[in-house]
Structure formats: C-alpha cells, structure tokens
Amino acid sequence: MKKMAFITDPQSEEETLAKAAISRALTVVLPEVYFVAQAEDKFEAENRLIIDVGNALRGAIDAAGSQHN
Fold first, then answer.
1. CA distances from 60 to 26, 27, 34, 52 (A)
2. pLDDT per residue over 14-37, tens digit each?
3. Alpha carbon distances (Å) from 35 to 4, 20, 27, 29, 53
4. Which of 1, 11, 39, 55 shows the smallest number of beta carbons within 10 Å?
C-alpha cells in the first residue's frame, strides 16, 4: 500500500472518513489520468500528481481561511 505524502493524521471521525474517501478516489482515478497512464514510471507520476493536488488543496484551504479572518 502506498503512503500519501504530507497527509496529517486525522483528528476526528469526520476527518478519518474524508481521508478514506479521498484516498479511495485517488486510488481509482489516478491510474486512469492521462499523465499517469502514459508515464514510464507510473508510481512517480502518481506521487507527483498527489503532491500537486495536495498543494492545490492546501492553498485553497489557506485562502478560504484567510478570507474568514
């Protein structure tokens, strides 16, 4: 089983369920993404995409948080 980079441990049941749903979606979707499917090293391509998606999500969360302050 692959370990996802930069994911913090869930703090609540809701976070645990959300993390499981996201992990499952990525497991199903990532191998089908053209960037990954056509890559010579699919594991590296998946990891790069996971990191990029995580960075984008953290940026969106940070931006939303700063709008509420």
1. 18, 22, 24, 12
2. 778 877 887 787 778 878 888 888
3. 18, 23, 15, 12, 13
4. 1
